């Protein structure tokens, strides 16, 4: 079993972007891709809405994204399908189809989805013999033939435009009169002589002999047969991310994973990005934006988890994982006060970066009673005793602390006898050091 900071699942635009950011942040990361890297880019002919490239083929963009992430040191493992992801304490265990397993502090799921099927007679039987879900992959096999495209969205129109290079005649079959595709795509495709819109029409059956020869559609109550050599289906999309989990993961009614604004799912340490996530637009730009956010958050989450583990090694890992989710990162400049003697105590802190001075007022003014370094915690005395802060803590360098509220702190302390003993002995040592306040 190999251990990583981060495992990325899926090598489409979201996964490759997550990989680029993780590699640049020096996180120990691996990206597993079931097929070749590129995701849906490999099924796309021309992309004209990727900023900075007026027009680029999907394959070229996939190659550029892969090369870019690899250049910064990302380990990519193509043809490595992931079977399941499960939680084991604060580890995420990634089980591969080949039976191997990997562990990581965090996982980013960017597995996209698969095309929705028409579910009509003949569709499954002729899949690969005239029924296709990817014009870019299969279009060239149908040079000079009459073809049908089923669907009315952007994908149907983009794929249809690609197929006009090969098709003698193209029937665009859609169940409504209006198309959802962008107007610019509609104008381009429907303006071509070889294209006929067949609407509102529903597909009833696909048939033929060794190959597809016809498609039956129902229009105005009557079934008509259109002779075609190929049927290209673009009627929707089914996200696949949630099938990687046996434990519950929040998703919407269509199976898209639900996240917060940081791309966090309800499972601590599991992020979801791109087409497999519930969102308004399934685009390359949104996929890469999601991935950027997820990695920046995951980086912080992993670092915090490691700090909290070091400070409370005896606490059960599930508790640590839960409390890390509750913690807030706070930053202080040298000289700034983090807590002040005499103030009410609402929270507990772990110092993760920088240094601080613990100071108490006495008859001769304020004096330093101890110093704090990364890994040290403070704020527990007031919280446990229910009194006000007994000392001031001031940053002596640019400092970062993790702040945990009173409820989370109590959960942490109660999580094991050894954790309770550790906190108790720290309190005793500190009170002894502080000496009597006169
Ligand atoms: C025909 C077509 C044309 C398009 N044109 C455009 C366009 O012009 N502009 C635009 O912005 N968007 C376009 N899109 C949409 C765009 O391609 C997607 O929004 C984008 O690819 C989503 O990226 P992703 O990384 O989330 O998912 P995907 O690109 O779907 O990548 C997911 C990857 O995860 C892998 N995977 C799945 N399951 C597993 C597993 N268990 N283990 C390991 N790997 C796994 C898959 O093999 C795949 O490589 C188009 C889409 C299609 C289908």
List the helices and strands and how they pair.
Blueprint: E1 2-9, H1 13-24, E2 29-32, E3 46-47, E4 56-57, H2 58-71, E5 75-77, E6 82-88, E7 91-96, E8 101-109, E9 113-115, E10 131-132, H3 135-138, E11 146-150, H4 154-163, E12 169-173, H5 183-190, E13 195-198, E14 201-208, E15 212-219, E16 222-227, E17 230-233, E18 237-239, E19 270-272, H6 284-311, H7 317-326, E20 328-332, E21 337-339, E22 347-353, E23 356-362, E24 365-372, E25 377-378, H8 380-385, E26 392-395, E27 399-405, H9 406-414, H10 417-434
Parallel strand pairs: 1-2, 1-8, 2-5, 8-19, 10-17, 11-12, 11-17, 12-13
Antiparallel strand pairs: 3-4, 6-7, 7-8, 9-18, 14-15, 15-16, 20-27, 21-26, 22-25, 22-27, 23-24, 23-26
Helix pairs in contact: 1-2, 1-6, 4-5, 6-7, 7-9
Flavin-adenine dinucleotide binds next to helix 1, helix 4 and helix 6.
Question: How would you portray this structure in words?
Answer:
This protein is α/β, with parallel strands linked by helices. The protein has helices spanning 13-24, 58-71, 135-138, 154-163, 183-190, 284-311, 317-326, 380-385, 406-414, 417-434; strands spanning 2-9, 29-32, 46-47, 56-57, 75-77, 82-88, 91-96, 101-109, 113-115, 131-132, 146-150, 169-173, 195-198, 201-208, 212-219, 222-227, 230-233, 237-239, 270-272, 328-332, 337-339, 347-353, 356-362, 365-372, 377-378, 392-395, 399-405. Strands 1, 2, 5, 6, 7, 8 and 19 form a 7-stranded mixed sheet that branches. A 5-stranded parallel sheet has the order 10-17-11-12-13, covered by helices on one side. A 4-stranded antiparallel sheet has the order 20-27-22-25. Helix 4 (154-163) packs parallel to helix 5 (183-190). Flavin-adenine dinucleotide binds next to helix 1, helix 4 and helix 6.
């Amino acid at each position: 079993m190999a251990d990583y900071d981060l495992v990325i699942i899926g090598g489409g635009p979201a996964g490759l972007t997550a990989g680029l950011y993780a590699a640049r942040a020096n996180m120990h990361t691996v990206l597993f891709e079931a097929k070749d890297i590129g995701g849906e880019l490999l099924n796309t002919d021309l992309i004209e809405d990727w900023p900075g490239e007026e027009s680029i083929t999907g394959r070229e963009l996939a190659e550029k994204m892969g090369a870019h992430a690899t250049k910064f040191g990302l380990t990519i493992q193509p043809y490595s399908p992931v079977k399941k992801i499960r939680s084991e304490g604060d580890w995420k265990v990634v089980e591969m189809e080949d039976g191997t397993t990997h562990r990581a502090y965090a996982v980013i799921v960017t597995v996209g989805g698969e095309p929705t099927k028409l579910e009509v007679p003949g569709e499954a039987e002729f899949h690969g013999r005239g029924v296709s879900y990817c014009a870019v992959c299969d279009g060239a096999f149908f040079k000079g033939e009459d073809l049908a495209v089923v669907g009315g969205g952007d994908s149907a129109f983009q794929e249809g435009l690609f197929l006009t290079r090969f098709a003698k005649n193209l029937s665009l079959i859609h169940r409504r009169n209006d198309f959802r595709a962008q107007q610019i795509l509609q104008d381009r495709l429907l303006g071509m002589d070889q294209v006929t819109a067949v609407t509102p029409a529903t597909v009833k059956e696909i048939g033929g002999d060794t190959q597809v020869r016809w498609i039956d559609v129902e229009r105005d109550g009557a079934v008509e047969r259109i002779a075609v050599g190929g049927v290209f289906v673009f009627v929707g999309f089914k996200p696949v991310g949630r099938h990687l989990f046996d434990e519950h993961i929040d998703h919407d009614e269509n199976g898209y994973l639900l996240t917060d604004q940081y791309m966090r799912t309800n499972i601590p340490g599991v992020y979801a990005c791109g087409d497999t996530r519930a969102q308004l637009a399934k685009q390359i730009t949104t996929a890469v934006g999601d991935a950027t956010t997820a990695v920046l958050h995951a980086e912080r989450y992993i670092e915090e988890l490691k700090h909290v583990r070091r400070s409370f090694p005896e606490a059960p890992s599930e508790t640590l994982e839960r409390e890390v989710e509750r913690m807030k990162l706070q930053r202080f400049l040298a000289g700034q006060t983090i807590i002040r003697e005499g103030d009410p105590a609402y929270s507990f802190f772990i110092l993760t970066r920088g240094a601080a001075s613990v100071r108490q007022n006495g008859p001769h003014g304020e004096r330093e009673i101890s110093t704090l370094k990364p890994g040290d915690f403070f704020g527990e005395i007031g919280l446990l005793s229910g009194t006000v802060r007994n000392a001031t803590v001031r940053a002596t360098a640019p400092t970062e602390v993790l702040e945990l509220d009173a409820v989370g702190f109590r959960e942490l302390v109660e999580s094991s006898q050894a954790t309770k003993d550790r906190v108790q002995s720290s309190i005793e040592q500190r009170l002894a050091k502080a000496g009597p306040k006169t």
